[in-house]
Specification:
Elements: H1 6-30, H2 37-48, H3 51-61, H4 65-90, H5 94-111, H6 121-147, H7 181-224, E1 275-280, E2 286-289, H8 290-294, E3 299-306, E4 317-326, H9 327-334, E5 342-347, E6 352-356, H10 357-361, E7 368-373, E8 376-377, E9 387-389, E10 403-409, E11 432-437, E12 447-456, E13 462-469, E14 475-476, E15 478-479, E16 489-497, E17 500-510, E18 532-538
Parallel strand pairs: 1-10
Antiparallel strand pairs: 1-2, 3-4, 4-7, 5-6, 5-10, 7-8, 7-9, 11-12, 12-16, 13-14, 13-17, 15-16, 17-18
Helix pairs in contact: 1-4, 1-6, 1-7, 2-5, 4-5, 5-6, 6-7
């Protein structure tokens, strides 16, 4: 078939893909909102991407890594749809075969997600049928148009030149002025392409908006939720927070708290329907409702959380006041049996984390099931209605959000989500320090200025922070008053800054007398190490 029609064939493929996705979203709206093919495939990609690429995405895009993934998937869909359109034009039914393969992949992705039921198959199946039919019809019209004599293309039909002495050849005029068959097919192709494309856009966006509206409804439920008053609250000592511009606040506002998880879309969990199951190596299976949990009594805790993906000096760390119940109280209701050494916590989206059982039963460690954060119910994106918070352990082995289950088991019998992906099964947080102000790339005027930042050593505490300027001797910084050993502390050092470029290095010493590791190591398999080094330009 003529190559000048390949562009129109690609357009037909894109429209077919649009109909596929729109029909799938429409069916998902009724049958299974979590089974959107694009989101299901995106979740599979998140699970399948090798560890180095995951870390690259987090480092490059931060909290926007999932948006970047969706945009990448959208580009891939456009390319695949264009290829399908051209294949269907050149070698039918190869284009339809591409649609069927895409539908099969979407179907498998939807059915293998956590909590998927039989209805999860319907969106992909409906999208495959609708997209395949539209692609078949459009390319059939395009092929007929391309094969029709005298129909040269979408814009004009050239009139053949007459040889000298011969009358000019006139275009064939059909009865009653009707156009040739190729023109009919051309009009049909463009008409259906426009209608199908516009309909797909309206239906797809509308269906997704209605699905997303469920999150808005849950936001209203969260806003209306009134948590019981805490039995105890965190005492904030005098001098706990320094008044220095640019330093991280003592408690990170919820809107600024880092978010790293595997959920492509924020799960919607109604507290009224929430259940926590404790099973596995226990004497008694326990199932709790949200009211059961908060009815046990809530206490307030100040705990710093750190992501294993946090590079030296990185932003993936935050400090908050949490409202919750000790995990040990819940586990003791189930009575773990001898031999168990791990709790596999599970999220509603299928994520799992492996936490040492000893850490969760330790009376001196405030491992909690949190329902509140900084004076309000957990934000949706931070695990509403219930999440785990365990001081001293990286989030990927402890801080499960949208919690649904606790399985008492062993490290030998079970693996959590990140373990087979190149991370350690046990991951105590490496203590660290960071310079917040001044920042690289932001020149400061010469004169006396504060160097300031934060340092953390959960469960142990920070003894001191030391600063070296231009590789000179280490100078001891002034610390804020610690809230507890589980929270970060702020620090500052007054500096007489002279014009020029200066290299600032920060390190911490914990209360055990251990000096922060200076050697740089990557985040995998159990957290980065190294001193934070910053180049400051003074004008």
């Amino acid at each position: 078939m003529r190559r000048r029609f390949w562009g129109w064939a690609a357009l037909g493929g894109v429209v077919g893909a649009g109909v596929f996705l729109a029909a799938a979203e429409l069916v998902a709206l009724v049958a299974s909102p979590e089974a959107s093919p694009l989101l299901a495939l995106g979740s599979v990609v998140i699970d399948a991407v090798p560890q180095p690429l995951k870390e690259l995405a987090i480092t490059t895009f931060g909290e926007y890594d999932k948006i970047a993934l969706l945009l990448g998937l959208a580009v891939a869909v456009l390319v695949a749809a264009s290829v399908a359109g051209v294949l269907q034009f050149v070698r039918p039914p190869l284009g339809i075969a591409v649609v069927v393969i895409a539908g099969g992949l979407s179907l498998a992705a939807s059915l293998t997600r956590a909590g998927a039921g039989p209805a999860a198959a319907l969106p992909a199946a409906g999208g495959t049928v609708a997209g395949g039919l539209v692609l078949w019809w459009l390319i059939a019209r395009l092929r007929a148009w391309a094969a029709a004599p005298g129909d040269e293309g979408p814009l004009e039909q050239p009139v053949p030149h007459a040889h000298e002495g011969e009358p000019a050849e006139r275009p064939t005029v059909h009865a009653k002025g009707a156009a040739g068959p190729g023109s009919v097919d051309r009009r049909a192709f463009f008409g259906v392409t426009a209608i199908a494309g516009a309909s797909a856009l309206l239906i797809g966006v509308g269906a997704r908006a209605l699905i997303t509206a469920s999150s808005s409804s849950l936001a209203a439920v969260r806003k209306a939720l009134r948590l019981p008053a805490a039995k105890s609250s965190v005492a904030i000592p005098a001098g706990a927070e320094l008044d220095i511009p640019g330093i991280s606040p003592l408690f990170t506002p919820n809107a600024d708290f880092y978010r790293v998880d595997t959920a492509l879309t924020v799960p919607s969990v109604d507290p009224a329907a929430w259940r926590l199951v404790i099973d596995g190596m226990v004497q008694q299976r326990v199932e709790l409702t949200f009211d059961d949990l908060v009815g046990m009594g809530l206490d307030e805790y100040a705990i710093t959380l750190t992501c294993v993906s946090n590079e030296v000096g990185g932003p993936l760390v935050g400090n908050a006041k949490w409202l919750g119940v000790p995990v040990r109280d819940v586990l003791r209701m189930a009575a773990p049996t001898p031999g168990a050494d791990m709790v596999l916590s599970r999220s509603v989206d299928g994520f799992t984390a492996s936490t040492p059982l000893g850490s969760l039963l330790d009376d001196d460690l405030d491992a909690i099931l949190a329902v509140g954060m900084n004076g309000e119910p957990l934000p949706l994106e931070h695990g509403f209605p219930v999440r785990m918070v365990v001081p001293g352990l990286y989030g990927y082995v402890s801080a499960t959000k949208w919690l649904s289950g606790l399985k008492v088991t062993t490290f030998a019998a079970d693996e959590a989500y990140w373990t087979p992906r190149g991370y350690s099964a046990k991951a105590p947080i490496r203590f660290s320090s960071r310079l917040d102000t001044p920042r690289t790339g932001q020149p400061v005027p010469a004169g006396r200025i504060p160097l300031a930042g934060v340092a953390w050593a959960q469960t142990v505490g920070i003894e001191r922070v030391e600063v070296s300027i231009d590789d000179s001797r280490w100078q001891q910084a002034t610390l804020s008053t610690p809230v507890s050993d589980d929270t970060w502390v702020q620090w500052f050092l007054e500096w007489d800054a002279a014009p020029g470029a200066h290299n600032i290095v920060v390190r911490a010493v914990d209360r055990n007398g251990d000096v922060q590791i200076g050697e740089r190591t990557p985040v995998a398999p159990d957290g980065s190490t190294g001193w934070h080094r910053t180049l400051i330009r003074v004008t």
